[in-house]
Amino acid sequence: MASEYLAIDRQQVIAQGTLETVVRQVKSLESQLEPMVFSADNCKRVEIDWQGDFETVLARLKPDTAPSNTKRGRPKLGVISKEVTLLPRHWEWLKQQPGGASVTLRKLVEQAQKQVSIEERISTQQQQLDRFMLQVVGDAPGFEDASRALYRNSKVSFEKAVSGWPDKIKHFVLVKFNNIAEMHKGNQ
Fold it and tell me: Rounded to the nearest 5 degrees, what angle is found at the Cα of 49, between the Cα atoms of 14 and 44?
């Protein structure tokens, strides 16, 4: 299933759908808009260079498949070398683990990702929604009240704070808020 995205210009949703659909819709408009684009899943902003026609913009969004000149990592598998700073006793422990440091670190990260508590997931989603609201409606009336209500899990206060926002933005943040509120309920 393809992810959904929102293109927003001046607090208005001007395109919605897959990334390709959003680019096509924005490029079909008769203006030189360069809207902000967000993933609907995690509210993260997607940087898009809007210069050029639809094909040019879309081509820049495709992952670079050019071979890397670096010898480190396993580029064919999508693995690239990064730096990890540990104390000598940590490196010593990693050396003693079956498979070596990389395998052990990957296993530890996988295990930690599986053990994310409901509180951590709630906190992450609150932060993502708050960051989205700041970028899109940070100067709109009600933003600060909405942000406070989000972290207090106050549905009535949140709905009141966002009531004057543009309909599509309001709908999007209310759906996200309600998803977070459901997680809160399930956690009690």
Answer: 65
